[in-house]
Structures are given as structure tokens and as C-alpha cells.
Amino acid sequence: MWTSEYIDDKIVVTILDDTGSEADLKIEMIEDKVIFRQYSEIDEELNDLLGDGEGIYDEICITADQFNELIEAMKRPEGVFVRKMNSN
Hints:
about 35% strand; globular
């Protein structure tokens, strides 16, 4: 299951683990970058010490091109690939 939201200038997709064994994955797409965020249960003790209630998240930031290549890679067999860019 997932949700899609349009918030200000970004698209936010939250993907839930239907089995409940992993934390939700939040993907924020802003202009030319994509940010993956997932709550870190490992750092929950640190969060308790900080007491800010915000939670601790692991975060990865990639470019939009890297994200497009990730999506394309999911469709391909094992190997080395180069994505051709359109010249517009």
C-alpha cells in the first residue's frame, strides 16, 4: 500500500510494508532531487534521550536522473547499462 501527496513544491510518496516488519519508506521528490527517508528503530534510544519527538530517520538523497535509473534497473536483467539521455 502507498500514499501520494502533493505538498507545496514537492511530491511525497509513502510506501508501507504490508507485513509490518519494516518501517514506512517516505520518498520526497523536489525539483531535481529525490530523498528517501525511513524511521530508524536502531536510533530510537537516542531519540528518547533527545526528547524532541521528531524521531530519527535514515536519509538518502539522489538526483532525479539516479532515481530514473533506479526505476529502469528494476526492469532489467543482470549486467551493466547506460541510459541514453534525450537531447531537447
